[in-house]
Amino acid sequence: MSITIQKNGTLEYLIAEGIAVPHAFTTRLGGVSTGQFASLNIGLHSGEKAENVAKNLQILADELGFDPKKLICTRQTHSDIVRAVTAADYLGLDHHDYPECDALVTAQPGVALKVFTADCTPILLYDPVTGAVGAAHAGWRGTAADIAGKTVRAMEAHFGAKPGDIRAAIGPNIGMCCFETDADVPEAMLAALGETARKHIRTKNEKYYVNLKAINAEFLRRAGVTHIEISDACTKCQNQRFWSHRITGAKRGSQGAIIVCKGVSP
After folding, report:
1. N or C: which end of the chain has fewer CB within 10 A?
2. What is the 8-class DSSP label of residue 8?
3. Are strands 103-106 and 82-84 parallel, antiparallel or unpaired?
């Protein structure tokens, strides 16, 4: 199984073959936003018009088949906080209005979950037995804090999901090729994972290069997940398809990941 690009007109997004409910790792292509936000911006940042974000989310809602008024957002702070939500937790399209968290889980049919990224790692989770789904934003701090594993454990605690049943997909982020860091990032990974992390860290010219996709996959495996699909896309290398904070800073829109809960299939 693999993560593949889907196209519908100008709209482009990625899906994981192992996740059998509507979902998407979005790109910057296929929306109505203009300028630095062009074109499928799904977040309210740096002066973007709310009506453009609403139209972009409607494009995705029409494509994936969900109600935008049941799309729950994260207010991301690079934390390890996971929230269990229902449709009653909808507070609008502005993520600033939501409680702090970097991951969401639900088992209520019709509810959709959304996380934002622009180099950080998006992770989607689906349990075909309970119907529960999860979405996580893993920056390097969240990665080191095991937000991936904590999201799995939240699905287990709230909905009875068994980790061995869960399908996980790790979407586009800044790849090891481009994620140049100082010593603080590899030190955090080694503190969290021990020597297991070392094989996902390279050094060059007194700088470090860290494979966040692989490290998140290690945390998922430690949580008991065995079905893991990983995108090979780098947001910095492919900055015409994705926004990259490393390239534009805050003068950009956001892509992200959305997953829709469909409940248990009959």
Report:
1. C
2. E
3. parallel
pLDDT tens track for 51-96: 999 999 999 999 999 999 999 999 999 999 999 999 999 999 999 9
Tell me the C-alpha to C-alpha distance, in Å, between residue 246 and each of 67, 113, 179, 183, 229. 33, 26, 9, 18, 25
- Cα–Cα nearest to 116, from 135, 89, 137: 137
Contact status, residue 106 vs residue 127, Cβ threshold 8 Å: no
- Rounded to whole angstroms, the Cα distance separating 170 from 174 reads 12
- What share of residues in the chain are helix, strand, coil (percent, to 5)? 30, 25, 45
Domains and CATH numbers, the chain: 3-174+227-260 (3.60.140.10)
Residue 266: the pLDDT is 57
What angle do the packed helices 212-222 and 184-193 form, to 10 degrees? 20
Closest CA to 255 of 10, 6, 14, 5: 14
Q: How far, in Å, are 19, 106, 137, 176, 188 from residue 199 at the CA level?
A: 28, 34, 23, 12, 14
Global pTM value: 0.98
pLDDT at 1: 67
H or E stretch at 133: strand 133-138
Average pLDDT value for residue range 101-116: 98
